[in-house]
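User: For a benchmark we're assembling, each entry needs the component sequences followed by a predicted structure for the full assembly. Here are entry 17's components. Please fill in the structure.
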Amino acid sequence: MTTEQTVRILLIEDDPDYAMLMGVYVNEACGTQLRYALRGAERLEEGLRLLDREEFDIALLDLILPDSRGLETLTRLRAKAPGLPVVVLTNLDQEEIGLEAIAGGAQDFLPKNKVDAGRLRHSIAFALARDRLHRQLETLIEGSPDGMLVVDRERVVRYANAAAVSLLARPREEIVGRPTTLILNPERPRETTLERRDQEPAVVEVRVAQIEWKGGPAWLAAVRDVSQIKKLEQARAEIRERRRMDQLKDQLLSTVSHELRTPLSVVKAIIGNLRDKLAGPMSPEQAELVATADRHVDRLTRLLNNFLDLSRLESRRARINRREVDPLELIHDVAEGVRMVHRGRRIEITLDLPPSLPCVYADSDMITQVLGNLFDNALRYARTRVILRARAAGGVVEISVRDDGPGLPAEGLEGLFSKFVQLDRPRGGSGYKGTGLGLAISREILNLHGGDILAENAPEGGARFRFTLPEASTSGAGGAKEGGSAKSGA
Amino acid sequence: MPRAALKKVLIVDDERDLAEPLARRLVGDGRFEVEIALDGADGARKARLLRPDAILLDLAMPEMDGWQLTGLLRADPRTRGATIIMMTAWLSPDLGRRAAAAGVSRLLLKPFQEADLMDALGAAI
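Assistant: Structure for entry 17:
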């Protein structure tokens, strides 16, 4: 205590002579920095009334008063002012009662006949320090976010802190003094679910230590609410499981795709042998049957491609995997693949690209699929060449794929992007494998990316498909911007 | 056409039912002499012995797949000069780049049109 401070004392003492004597001692005890102010009451009721009106730092309490006797006096005072430190004044030969008073919550006791200024100062300082320490411990335990329970060997709860009361969702009186149903195992932490009145059950982790409580063996149970953590874990597990299922589905799709294409290839090759009379001569009727079979193998192939493309889109939609992607790199990659497949078609694939383009925030597998679809489409109708152009404009990267074929019929352009619609256009190369779904899937993919696609006839002739992807900086790299629509600026 | 003018083609595919009609088709064309291998290791061995002008191989094969076989063929001076045409059921995003880097000249997506196959072989020889 560095500055001057006054300790406000409430003396409850029915003997006026002794009260006066205490007043003398208190005055004597005052120092330069620490002062004492004394208020007296002769009866307990009077003392309790004073507590209503004034604030006190400590009470000096005679246990034997006209209106209350023995430890009952202390109990009543503490009930009125639970936080007020009490020093009990005892008569000669009443050390036993003094000790009992301490067990009952008093900070100290003073034998009346041995009081002097020094002892009084000492006892008050001791009581205040002891009270402060007690409060600190109580703050720690009561303020703990974990529930703390003291349970005796009869499984009766002897103490419950605020967090325990809130976790158990019952009034403290219904917890303390009653048996608990918690399973207490000092060997290892245990997780259990607390069923609660009017509240959702809580998942708690219970850790138990063996302690001594008021002279007997007991358990200290720390009860931690792990409901939130459990929910998070559960959500994470669900996400992991969903990802696993999606991966399985992708694997299954690629296996099914391979497994189905192989027999189709076999059938197609065998039909080719028959048609080319490599397995002997055929009648015109047989040749016609074989030609029909050939057409239907192609049809089966188209249906299979439809199915696989749609399934792939569905499984990818759930876990679109976007990163910053350099559109130029992607375009070169896809064009290379397309050239490798269509090298024999004598159709030139031209890339008309600026030296650099801003990055887009995209799932490169999905955009590869879009580019592949547009190339497939263009190659189907092109006479001599397919031209891919790309440019950056107004926060988007615009990519167009044009062919030099017959162009699109003016009516029904919008239907081009609906599922299962293929415009009645003359075919480019012979027997091209078209899926009929490529454009619909491309549009869905681009919409997922906040981009768009449109079909038009190019001024220089042929059909042109233009699509946009927002630049990485405008679509917020790292942010999950879903489903926004950036219209192409045409 | 004298027999010496026939171009040699090696088909490597674990699916005998596909390899055989393809071979019959090529033989029927009259320009090719064809050998079949049913796995990658056999394909590498026959390629060294036969020194084919073109090798038509399947990407997905057990034990040694098309990539590994292509690597072997490219590493061996006896087979380095052969044109490699790769058959695959699935066009993955980086397949084109990977195939070009490995020295594959053409990809055929299963099931392919025979015209594409003949065109690829025609271009090779």
